């Protein structure tokens, strides 16, 4: 039994947090548990059932859910901080929690008031976990309206983060003969969703992001998110899903980088030896000037990246919690640019930390038993989600020309 599995009921007799400070403390507990056996679980790449149960038992999964249904009723500023903290303990599980938050909020982004009430009551009261079969680059799920008047989904998705460990799946496809994308929230455990268990990547190995085949998954038009009388109710607010998820990525990267730095520091203090051939010999590695300089540089850059992300997280949260019809394209575009800046800084700093931690720990720290490689592998893998060069270009176009990015599936 893993360390994670032995802790899944530790909060059974504790009240759910009611303050931001309480929620952050709960996230720190979860991160500490995950960090203990992160490397062993990554190597095994077992389906993270226990890890998701840990998230559920801790209460973190209902953080954004309405209080009247048993949720935490918290804001996105807190959710972003929790994603960062959990990712410091395990980037894969941080990703699962982060995507859960986004997909749980998806009905608020595009749904009708009745759909919002129904889905939030369902997932919050039953503590259900979300996955998502949404990959806009793959136009390979076709929706047909059959003679029964219902919508039938068929096709394949290359990625389905959360896949078989989820209770609900956000499903997306294109209505045949149109350019209309239709989102629906469906039960994950049904014959029509076939998981291929083919996620075998360099990093984020426990994110359950493999491909799925969709075979005749059926919904009523009433379940088509945001559609009224078969017409989509469009508004700028709905396009906040992209800057919201880009901020999520930023938090995952910053949490991973923090975890790398903290793990390296523990190793340096306990196992790294001073270099005896430098002419200015030290008694301890913690007295070595090059080690102190490196930690100082990396921590300073990480603090700066975290400060920018704190600011952009607060900015996007203001819009996410605003009245849906009050959000303008200009507001949306400006926050998207700022988040693009935060993301690129987080990627740069995170990859630097993931590489340089070996310089401050030494040759023996490259042992697979130590597992310091997990941080760089996770960052390198997920940061390829969409080309970072395009984020730099978005910021450049805004800085030079005052242009805000067009709302697309990736901006």
From TrEMBL:
Q: What does the entry give for GO biological process?
A: L-leucine catabolic process
Cite the entry's keywords alphabetically.
Flavoprotein, Oxidoreductase
**One Pfam family in the UniProt entry:** Acyl-CoA_dh_2
Under the heading Gene3D superfamilies, the entry gives: Acyl-CoA dehydrogenase/oxidase, N-terminal domain, Butyryl-CoA Dehydrogenase, subunit A, domain 2, Butyryl-CoA Dehydrogenase, subunit A, domain 3
Record carries keyword Cytoplasm? no
Q: Where is the Acyl-CoA dehydrogenase/oxidase N-terminal domain?
A: 39-117
Q: Where is the Acyl-CoA dehydrogenase C-terminal domain?
A: 252-385
Q: What Gene Ontology molecular function terms does this protein carry? A: 3-methylbutanoyl-CoA dehydrogenase activity; flavin adenine dinucleotide binding
Keyword RNA-binding belongs to the record: no
InterPro entries the record matches: Acyl-CoA_DH_C, Acyl-CoA_Oxase/DH_mid-dom_sf, AcylCo_DH-like_C, AcylCoA_DH/ox_N, AcylCoA_DH/ox_N_sf, AcylCoA_DH/oxidase_NM_dom_sf
Report the protein name in the record: Acyl-CoA dehydrogenase
Task: Give the lineage.
Answer: Bacteria, Pseudomonadati, Pseudomonadota, Betaproteobacteria, Burkholderiales
